[in-house]
Amino acid sequence: MTQSRYLSAALLFAIASPLFGSPLSQAAEPATAPEVSVEQPGEMDLAQALQLAVRNNPGLRAALELEVQARNQRDSLFMLLTPTFNLGWQYRVNDREISFNPADSFGGDALASTFEPLYGNLGYIFGEMFGAGWVDDQDCAQLAQINGYADCDELSQAFLDGADLSPPSSADDGADSEPVVVQQKSQQIVNLSASWPINPRSIPMGRASNNELRAARADVQQQRDAVMLGVVRAYAATWQAQEALHLYGARLEAAEARLRDAQSLQGAGMLTREGQLQAQLLLERSRRAQQEGRAQLRSARRGLKLAIGLPELQIPELTAIPSLEIERFNPEDLRSQASELRPEAQAAESRTRATRELQVDAALQFLPQFSVTGNLSYTDRASGFDNRRNSWWIGLGVNLPLWDGGIRVKNARDAASRRRQAKARLEMLRQQIDAEVEGAWDRFQSRSESLAVAELELELAAELNTAVKLRFQLGQATQSELLEAETQREGANFALLQARAARELAAAELLASAGRIGTLQP
Question: Which pTM value belongs to this model?
Answer without folding.
Answer: 0.66
